[in-house]
Write a structure and sequence with these properties.
Layout: H1 23-26, E1 29-31, E2 33-36, E3 42-44, H2 49-63, H3 69-81, E4 109-113, E5 116-119, H4 120-137, H5 141-167, H6 174-192, H7 196-203, H8 207-227, H9 232-241, E6 247-257, H10 268-286, H11 291-298, E7 309-314, H12 320-328, E8 339-341, E9 344-355, H13 358-375
Antiparallel strand pairs: 1-4, 2-3, 4-5, 6-7, 6-9, 8-9
Helix pairs in contact: 2-5, 3-6, 3-8, 4-5, 5-8, 6-8, 9-13
Length: 377
Amino acid sequence: MSEDKKIINDNEEIKTESTTNEESVNNDVVIEAVAENNNGESEEIVQSEEVAEKGIKTKIKKLKNGKNTKSIIAMAVIGCLCLGVGFTYGKSVGRTLPATSRKYRANKVIATVGDTKITGEQLRQKMEPLFYINAKTKMTDEEIDVYEASFIDYMTTTEVLYLEGKAEGIKVEKEDIENEYSTLMSSLQQTYNITEDELINKCNITKEDIEKELEKELIAVEYIGQASEVTEKEAENYYNKNKDEFLSVRASHILISNRDDEGNDVSDEQKKKNKEKAEEILKQAKEGVDFAQLAKEYSQDGSSENGGDLDFFSKAQMVEPFEKAAFSLKNGEIYPEIVETDYGYHIIKKTDEKYDDFDTIKEELVYTLGYEKQSNI
């Protein structure tokens, strides 16, 4: 029944305990108004801790998604620290910026992370290199709007993670920082055609400034990696406690379709006749007539030539009424009633079941549980 197979839940949540103190992320961040629009009105990016927390968790997921942490770090700082996390390293010398309509109130506190306060002037310092890139790449105001919101979100997120990592004693090697610096410079050259000298001279940012930012990024990523680590033993324990999640069943079915040759629904009168036909076939199956032979004779599904065999399938692969019926049966049982779906009327027989072998799925399970832990940081 190839058309009966229908994945209905690709994002099933796997619950696992987090070893991280979530309070340190939830309660320490407040984000306020960021800039003034062209009419001089204050535009708010985030208004509450609850909203800030949601944004932080989203950025945490993006900061470390499986195997992409190295490239994420480089992209996060691209554009003269476009998404940088330091708050005081930019050095303004009072020169004229490339044209922009944005006005930042210098002493306005726009966000706090613990004892750290971020002001409009510090945001301007971080935005300044972006304005320089804008002059070269002709970014639209809408694109700059996106970056501006991302600055605040990413700055607060990474500062939280950096402070957590620092408290845990996480350190990074100088060699790792230098490697990330080289990756960043190469990305800037390829993406924006900006050289290292141009970056430093035009944006008043030193190599030491950039390396400090990268150090924070690396510590934040390493903290997430450690906090979301799942051992093979933990995965095995989860597997043993939740074996039903790894159950697959094998079933055969006979379909009396409620669709015509063009795929349209048949009339109510025809549906009534189809149901009567399905009930008669179910009666024969219960009386012991060979199920495979009945499927070959009556089923209006591609599986009919295989005696109705659908092979093994797991939960969420079939439409819900079919799944519930198939998984409720014992091996060799025929479901006692006709099962109706959008496709028509089904007579269902369960023929086998099996559990996924742990050794086969352990790598995927470790990754899945780790990602779930990460999302709860």
